[in-house]
Amino acid sequence: MTDRVVTRFAPSPTGYLHIGGARTALFNWLYARRMGGKMLLRIEDTDRERSTEAAVSAIIEGLHWLGLDADEPPVSQFARAARHREVAEALVAAGKAYYCYASPAELDEMREKAKAEKRPPRYDGRWRDRDPSEAPAGVKPVIRIKAPLDGETVVQDRVQGEVRFPNKDLDDFILLRSDGTPTYMHAVVVDDHDMGVTHIIRGDDHLTNAGRQTLIYRAMDWDVPVFAHIPLIHGADGAKLSKRHGALGVEAYREMGYLPVGLKNYLVRLGWSHGDDEIISPEEMIAWFDIDDVNRGAARFDFAKLDAVNGHWIRASGDAELVDMLMSVREHLPNGAILRSEPDEVVRDRLLRAMPGLKERAKTLVELAESSAYLFAARPLAIEPKAEEILAGGGREVVSGLLPVLEQVADWNAASVEAAVRDYAEQQGLKLGKAAQPLRAALTGKTTSPGVFDVLDVLGRDETLARLREQAA
Ligand code: GLU
């Protein structure tokens, strides 16, 4: 046995990789990186009705997009059914589990009785010590664990602390169903053991399973891994996370224009902190992350914070890198068509020139694409109503006055056009904004844009003058 840390992410492929799952994967991945270990991926696909190949692909693709690839090919839980059966039978052979032939009617009766006595439903152990020769003919048995009848099972959880489960509450639960398929409880333990998992980091909705799972490890005489049950993510209002709050698949976050680095930065802060640091780079996360620093309280998902963090990472990204990102993600963006309005080289070239101005204001790639629209707009330019108000309210006269001034600018760049516009405004007794606003409206069709002199510079002399002539009074 080595001491190397092995974590795992074990999603059920019944839906896409949702945001809570992405955070669980991130914590497992970070802890493995931090400790020089590895993270494995297990697809918990034993529910054949609800598991789909599309969901498996979406999970793997979502992890890849976030840069959280597993260190080995994924393990299918369903494919390991024979091994699950083997372990259950080994437990019977060792006297740690037994065949139970109780009929559905008997189990119903037990449940009803418990209900009447206001007790939680528990299997009463009727086959626990019975001789198998008494087995009714033609009935396929289940395998149940022989759980301790008294005492406690204690889980030392790295996040939740010491958690005690009275053994009488754990009862002789089923390991193998009568059709030979394993229960979730059993399959998880056998897989985690066989995969060499040393640390189980998962949502705290699984905390009660940890007690029962510990019994299986003990019965097999296997090392119990370290458990760390992390708090679930709630909505900004404290309620359980719903779609409205952001309980969406990671592909939805890609479509909303978040960067992997921004989303990871936001997610790592949900339930974990490093002092007051809000902006944490991927390298810092690896260097600082520890499960002991995960908080016990539920984390709250807040889109405004996510936007702020993502905006930071957009500004911090290189111009060429952002152009590449926009081009590669455009098929997923609702307004990605903006980036297809010219041949790719032209789009890339204009984006790159405009990027220093564009990236200052955008919080998402969708906003970045939106604000780049002026670069690709065909004449006659579509003018938004608010921009039209500015042009109609005296703006066209300003544009007409500026046109000959700008036509005189010989060496066209942001500084030279700014100087020309400033001169003109001063001569006319106009505030600079009163000159800049109509220019912006005429050149972009909008009332917000990157700095207007950058717009003139990026559009170039000919396109600028052509757009201004369209609006001149
Ligand atoms: N498949 C379980 C889930 O998606 C996780 C099981 C585990 O982590 O042990 O909730």
Automatic annotation (TrEMBL):
Binding residues annotated for ATP, in chain numbering = 243
Please state what class of enzyme this protein is.
ligase
Show the GO MF annotations: ATP binding; glutamate-tRNA ligase activity; tRNA binding; zinc ion binding
Q: Where in the cell is it found?
A: Cytoplasm
Keyword flag Ligase? yes
User: Which positions does the motif 'HIGH' region occupy?
Assistant: 11-21
Q: Can you tell which superkingdom this protein's organism belongs to?
A: Bacteria
- Main localization is cytoplasm
Q: Transmembrane region positions?
A: none
Q: Which PROSITE patterns match?
A: AA_TRNA_LIGASE_I
Q: Give the enzyme's EC designation.
A: 6.1.1.17
Q: Which GO terms describe its biological process?
A: glutamyl-tRNA aminoacylation
**Where, by residue number, is the motif 'KMSKS' region?**
240-244
Keywords on record: Aminoacyl-tRNA synthetase, ATP-binding, Cytoplasm, Ligase, Nucleotide-binding, Protein biosynthesis
InterPro entries (alphabetical): aa-tRNA-synth_I_cd-bd, aa-tRNA-synth_I_codon-bd_sub2, aa-tRNA-synth_I_CS, aa_tRNA-synth_I_cd-bd_sf, Glu-tRNA-ligase_bac/mito, Glu/Gln-tRNA-synth, Glu/Gln-tRNA-synth_Ib_cat-dom, GluQ/Sye
* Ranges of Basic and acidic residues composition bias in the record: 113-133
Give a short account of what the protein does.
Catalyzes the attachment of glutamate to tRNA(Glu) in a two-step reaction: glutamate is first activated by ATP to form Glu-AMP and then transferred to the acceptor end of tRNA(Glu).
Tell me its family: Belongs to the class-I aminoacyl-tRNA synthetase family. Glutamate--tRNA ligase type 1 subfamily.
Q: How does it assemble?
A: Monomer.
What name does this protein carry? Glutamate--tRNA ligase
Lineage summary: Bacteria, Pseudomonadati, Pseudomonadota, Alphaproteobacteria, Hyphomicrobiales
